[in-house]
Amino acid sequence: MKLPRLALVLVLAASSAAFSTPAAAQPSVYPQQEGYVDAHGVLIYYVAFGDGSPLVVVHGGPGANHDYFLPWLLPLARAHRLIFIDERGSGRSQRLQDASLYTVEAMVEDVEDLRVALNLGKISLLGHSYGGVLAQAYALKYQQNLTRLILDSTFPSTRQMNEVLAREKAQMPPAKLARLNQLEQAGLFGKGEAWEHGRYPAEYATLAWGPGYFPFLYGARPDSTYDPATGAPTNWELYRAMWGEHGEFVIDGNLKSVEYVDRLPSIHVPTLILAGDHDECDPSLSREMHEKIAGSQLVILPNSGHMNFVDQPDLWQQAVEGFLSGKSVQ
Hints:
Layout: H1 5-19, E1 33-39, E2 42-49, E3 53-58, E4 80-85, H2 104-117, E5 123-128, H3 130-142, E6 146-152, H4 158-170, H5 174-185, H6 202-212, H7 214-217, H8 236-242, E7 271-276, H9 283-292, E8 297-301, H10 308-311, H11 313-324
Parallel strand pairs: 3-4, 3-5, 5-6, 6-7, 7-8
Antiparallel strand pairs: 1-2, 2-4
């Protein structure tokens, strides 16, 4: 039977609709903003992207930069405005002629100046490794400006961290430990060519950041591109001023000021503490912080080292996202 023209059009339209696929979700775009904040005379580099409440992220080292967080922390941008900084003297931020100005206390003021300059209001603050030390120091002075605090693979006491480092050093293979000790006893700076005087000898760096540290850095997902000979800070003057002159297994620079254990009970903002189960910053330090900060939440990630967001990215994201959204992650 021949259908009227209108009916034919309706049938064809219905047939087409029956076999069409649902429209794809509109992809999201997260424009990136970058720039410098003049923090009382020191230019601090930042990069920001994402949607939602502000989450400021501070890196370790001291003297690394924000690059090692990427791409691992990118999923947080779906629900938060991520603001990464390079701390004074690190990465793209201004270097200072006077190395004595590289202190935790000065970097606290840099973070506060960034918060004010970018008009962020209250922030969540995430610090990893040395960045976790900086985040604690910020919370101890400016917790009224925090909504949440995340302390990842860090320490509250240099004295305690030195005890941890001594134990880790003792676990090196005996022959390599003996050679490392010889290099330390001979002095680690002023060796080789003029351009090498301000940094560790390559042999020492390979021993310290290879068999010395690597067992405590990774677990489930060791980085196949990791090279202990190239794991140096971006600013050796900063590193020597803050960490010290006598090698990787003793902190005797100005980080000796970090003794926060007795002050941690004064932190009352919601706090998440994370560590790998064989973290370079031993999990016992995280457990102590958890005991001292009332109401804090503690997550020890399995088969994870210091780079726990690399070893267990899904578990790490679940814990951090859950905490930032107000859920219990214990």
